[in-house]
């Protein structure tokens, strides 16, 4: 089991689709292309794969001709990001990437105001929506901040370590998704929406080429949704070892502790300090692996159950229903409808 696996809350799919349909568009075709059904959208526990969310967003971009997904006053027409990216590629450093990308959007669309500030020892990148009430669930704000961290990181060929991410709104119900989005502590009820990082990274050179950019844009937005989740140190090591395991379902805490050259007691203590446990990590990985495999139409449910270490399909069904609120067969059927 070496493929990259994690799932994403249905919250983002529902929010983006709802915004489009409020403008009078019919999203049924886009849902079908993403292998999703409307029934799934109404279940808060349901999670989807990065490929499903990427297909949905790509379809919404094209259908509504708006890369801001109808969550702002003015559209950002499909292809605008590509133009900005080409413009940003003309710079030589991370500093110029942020300057060029911010200036580009501030010139062409007043719906979002991007601000790039250099301070004594750190950098602040922030954004402000002209009509924040349209982004009622704050998902566009979250989405844009994620992009403006990941795209510049790709431009310099390494991830920019963030010091903190700040939001002006209160912590939402889907805040657990931030571990998939931002490699830094997240703070709410702040005075701005943005993030900060060490100023020393601004001189990092741009390493990408036009050819690389074409490939990058062809994959968008999948790459933005498919990056490794940002876990604390010990949690990340445990997760990595479980992902590499050929027997995820039967892997034990003792085995993982041995592989980490530590004791089970020490491992348990460190995970508790990171507010998790071995069983929680293992169950989340089994859940996300199950969702990934269920998105493959030719993979029998019984086979998936065996791969995940369940002795009987019925045990897998109970566990999956506990994780997502629906049975595996129902999840797959809804995705095929």
TrEMBL record:
Keyword terms of this UniProt record: DNA-binding, Transcription, Transcription regulation
PROSITE patterns, per database record: HTH_ARAC_FAMILY_2
Classification via InterPro entries: AraC-type_N, Homeodomain-like_sf, HTH_AraC, Tscrpt_reg_AraC-type_HTH
One cellular component term from this protein's GO annotations in UniProt: cytosol
GO molecular function: DNA-binding transcription factor activity; transcription cis-regulatory region binding
Location of the HTH araC/xylS-type domain: 236-334
Protein name as catalogued: Transcriptional regulator
Source organism of the structure: Marinobacterium nitratireducens
């Amino acid at each position: 089991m070496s493929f990259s696996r994690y799932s994403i809350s249905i919250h983002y799919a529902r929010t983006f689709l709802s915004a489009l349909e409020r403008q009078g568009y019919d999203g049924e075709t886009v849902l079908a292309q993403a292998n999703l059904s409307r029934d799934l959208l109404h279940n808060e526990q349901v999670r989807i794969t990065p490929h499903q969310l990427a297909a949905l967003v790509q379809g919404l971009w094209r259908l509504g001709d708006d890369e801001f997904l109808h969550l702002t006053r003015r559209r950002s027409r499909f292809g605008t990001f590509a133009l900005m990216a080409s413009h940003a590629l003309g710079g030589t450093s991370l500093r110029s990437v942020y300057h060029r990308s911010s200036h580009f959007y501030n010139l062409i669309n007043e719906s979002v105001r991007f601000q790039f500030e250099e301070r004594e020892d750190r950098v602040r990148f922030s954004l402000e929506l002209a009509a924040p009430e349209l982004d009622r669930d704050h998902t566009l704000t979250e989405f844009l901040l994620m992009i403006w961290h990941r795209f510049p990181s790709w431009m310099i060929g390494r991830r920019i370590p963030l010091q903190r991410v700040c939001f002006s709104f209160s912590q939402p119900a889907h805040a657990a998704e931030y571990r998939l989005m931002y490699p830094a502590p997240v703070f709410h009820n702040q005075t701005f929406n943005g993030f900060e990082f060490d100023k020393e990274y601004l001189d990092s050179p741009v390493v990408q080429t036009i050819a690389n950019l074409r490939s990058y844009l062809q994959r968008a937005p999948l790459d933005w949704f498919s990056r490794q989740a940002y876990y604390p140190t010990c949690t990340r090591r445990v997760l990595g070892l479980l992902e590499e395991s050929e027997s995820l379902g039967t892997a034990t805490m003792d085995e993982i502790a041995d592989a980490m050259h530590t004791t089970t007691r020490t491992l348990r203590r460190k995970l508790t300090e990171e507010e998790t446990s071995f069983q929680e990590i293992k169950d989340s990985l089994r859940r996300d692996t199950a969702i990934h495999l269920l998105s493959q139409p030719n993979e029998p449910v019984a086979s998936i159950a065996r791969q995940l270490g369940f002795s009987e399909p019925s045990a897998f069904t109970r566990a999956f229903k506990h994780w997502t609120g629906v049975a595996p067969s129902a999840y797959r059927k809804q995705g095929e409808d």
